[in-house]
Design brief:
Radius of gyration: 24 Å
Number of helices: 18
Order of helices and strands: HHHHHHHHHHHHHHHHHH
Number of strands: 0
Oligomer: single chain
Distance between the termini: 16 Å
């Protein structure tokens, strides 16, 4: 029996979730640049906490849960269509779609990242990061590349970093691209899993997905692994008639249970990246982690990953949450999430850094009057009123630039991918044909 058609509003919420995750990545990197103490749960060991260091609130300034959301969304979005076709008896059509999607994924994922790297490389060679090198921000200085020593060396450095981005995640011109190789592997993991399970009965497929989730959990793959399988599993559950009917027949359980999962997921996502022992609530989470996480696990990865999975599960069963996330503005943000992720860090290190640090006067360098070497003086942050106006305007500039990227760069990347597909695909694979299904 084919599942009932999924209403559009039941699907577009994932775009809203992705949009929020992308803007939180930007916010997290700005906070790392200007107020890095927010990463910790308190100002000192057993000391007081600021408002944005409190659980739940701190989700607004942390970015690791967003990476987990991207992995979960990858599993969910890439598997939903094939799983629907499989349940409808069109497994052969699903396999064709999986094969083509897997091939196109490389071009549509890698080419935009290459373009972003080349732009950052050009900015570096022409000195756009010079202010960032002396700004009073550890994160900005640490992520800002220096120009190459020669013309030939510049091209060598470019091609080297274009390769290492996908080999080990290293990219000097945009260090946040370290996640891309893992997300690409997660996409391929999704397609391989669908390829292997597309003919399996739905109940057995869900059971196998639970086993794969457990395997990735026990193996310590908290960055992408178990989030990918959670996304596939949620896609399967979201179109299962028995689950849909049970939720419809028990609205109270659905409402209370989903709201509880959302709250619990946000609490898990609050786990601090540094010094969890400084606050009682995070110490308790640390103790609980020793009971549920594998030995040697990085709790600052596991908790946000687990939180993203629990949060998404709660949202999927919560009508109000899906309605909010389906708002056209949040969905629009979700459509811009890929270009925002690619361009926000170079823009932080250039445009935002120029505004916040460029007009400051650097302290004296060298030796003092007694001949002692003075500590390195960095360009101080601008006055608070400048920061208050500059950061909101930066978000406007960032999303305007992302829209231009979506209008011009993404279509060009898609055309390049399509031309390469036309070049290498067999003639009988270029045209969709009606399938004779047994």
């Amino acid at each position: 029996m084919a599942p009932p058609p999924t209403p559009k509003r039941e699907v577009v919420w994932i775009d809203g979730l992705r949009g929020i995750a992308s803007v939180l990545v930007v916010t997290a990197h700005i906070c790392r640049s200007l107020v890095p103490h927010l990463i910790k749960p308190a100002l000192s060991d057993r000391g007081p906490s600021t408002f944005f260091q409190l659980p739940f609130i701190r989700c607004l300034v942390m970015g690791r849960a967003s990476v987990a959301v991207f992995a979960l969304v990858t599993g969910y979005v890439n598997s939903l269509g094939p799983l629907k076709k499989s349940r409808a008896g069109n497994a052969d059509a699903a396999l064709i779609g999986i094969a083509k999607s897997a091939f196109r994924r490389f071009g549509r994922f890698m080419i935009p990242a290459i373009v972003a790297t080349v732009i950052s490389w050009l900015a570096c060679q022409f000195g756009a990061y010079n202010v960032a090198h002396v700004a009073d921000s550890d994160w900005i200085r640490a992520t800002s590349p220096v120009p190459s020593i020669s013309f030939a060396g510049a091209f060598y450095d470019l091609f080297k970093n274009l390769g290492t981005t996908w080999i080990d995640g290293g990219n000097a011109y945009d260090k946040i691209q370290w996640t891309l190789t893992y997300l690409l592997k997660g996409s391929m993991m999704t397609y391989l899993t669908l390829f292997a399970l597309i003919y399996v009965k739905p109940r057995w497929r869900m059971l196998i997905l639970v086993g794969l989730f457990w395997f990735k959990w026990k193996s310590g793959d908290a960055l992408v692994g178990f989030n990918i399988f959670c996304g596939i599993l949620l896609a399967e559950v979201s179109i299962d008639p028995d689950v849909i009917n049970f939720a419809s027949a028990h609205p109270y359980i659905q409402a209370v249970g989903s709201a509880s999962l959302i709250i619990l997921g946000l609490f898990f996502c609050s786990y601090p990246e540094e010094h969890p022992e400084w606050a009682r609530w995070s110490r308790n989470m640390q103790d609980f982690g020793r009971l549920i996480f594998p030995v040697g696990a990085e709790y600052a990865r596991f908790y946000p990953g687990m939180g993203a999975d629990v949060l998404a599960t709660g949202i999927m069963f919560n009508t109000t949450a899906k309605t909010i996330l389906s708002h056209r503005f949040l969905c629009w943000m979700g459509k811009q999430s890929w270009p925002v992720y690619l361009i926000h860090a170079p823009l932080i290190r250039t445009v935002l850094t120029w505004v916040l640090f460029g007009a400051s006067v650097r302290p004296p360098q060298g030796k003092d009057q007694n001949g002692n070497q003075m500590p390195p003086g960095w360009l101080p942050l601008a006055k608070p009123w400048v920061v208050m106006f500059a950061i909101p305007l930066f978000y406007v500039f960032l999303y305007r630039t992302a829209v231009l990227w979506s209008q011009y760069v993404d279509p060009w990347c898609a055309r390049v991918t399509q031309r390469f597909e036309d070049l290498v695909f067999r003639d009988d694979a270029k045209v969709e044909k009606p399938l004779l299904l047994s």
